[in-house]
Amino acid sequence: MKARLVIYPGLGKTGTTALQVLLRCSPAELAALGYEYAGDMLAGDSETIGSGNADKLARLLGKANPPLARIEELANLIIPETGNAIIASELLSHLDEQQWQRFAQLDRVAERRTTVVVAIRNLYPSAWSAYNQDIKRGGYFGEFSDWARSMFDTSGSMFGQLAAMRSVFGADEVTVLHFESSRSNLIETLLTAAEIPLDGLDLSLAGSTAVPHNRSLTDGERAVMRAVNRSFGSKYSTALSDLLLRHTPPDRPELLLDAEALDFLDRNFGAQYAQASTDCFGDDQVLGICSAEIRERFADGSLDAHREPPRESTGAALATLLRKERRNLPNRTIRRFLKGLRKQLRASGRIDQGHAEEAAT
């Protein structure tokens, strides 16, 4: 019987980081089940947000005419010579058909039965997560509606990426899950879809606060990061957002309504997503722009994306950076900027005195 290779490409903010945490923290348990998740450079690192064990390989495969010897070298670091292997990285989802074909022809891949498991999301929450990601990593500071209109790129959409994987590995070897339908037990569903036994695995590790997750920002964190990005571009985006993400907020960040963005996505992609839902899930119209449940939650207007962030949320974000992470700030320039922002927000009543004093402690 052929050894197996399980691939988790991580299409568009679908729990890949949480899965990687579980895999990173469970080498002995995976070995007992007959699997290896090798080569994650962050093994044992509880302070850094990772991108999986296949990030370097995916970056190389994505280049024009990469040297085959180097591809083989990186692949061999994460795919053992014998036995079942698991690889994961969101960067794999960026590969086109030709790049996936180059990967599939590697000796250690070709000799295995390959299984690909991907989850796909409804467009509005997926775009909202990508917008947050662009604030955290790309220096973006505008409104979500502007981001959706000007930066949402359909040429590299998840449907094209999915088609490339199916073409190379075969439709029967690519399992597609609906993220929102599986969210309550996502990690279990991802593992089960790949036929990986759950025996002995502590699934709670995927939600462990010991390892930071690449979550969306709270209202207050987003307001602070947008102010920083407006002044500095992307210079401090990654460093500051990583400091914020090391701390778990008391409440899960809300998905907010930007009516202009929702209307734009409905008009431009509604038919495409309806057809994709039929193609992937048959008559069950589960995939779409935004679920009926979310639309109902938006109805009363309390989740308006253009609302003023709650004072306690903005105050907590500043307190995290200026008090809890003060020594880890990149330099004095950004420290002075954050102090000036705190003073400005306090004067305008957008954070209260208590939060200002906490941030100053």
From TrEMBL:
Gene3D superfamilies: P-loop containing nucleotide triphosphate hydrolases (3.40.50.300). This is Unannotated protein. SUPFAM superfamilies: P-loop containing nucleoside triphosphate hydrolases. It comes from freshwater metagenome. InterPro entries: P-loop_NTPase (IPR027417).
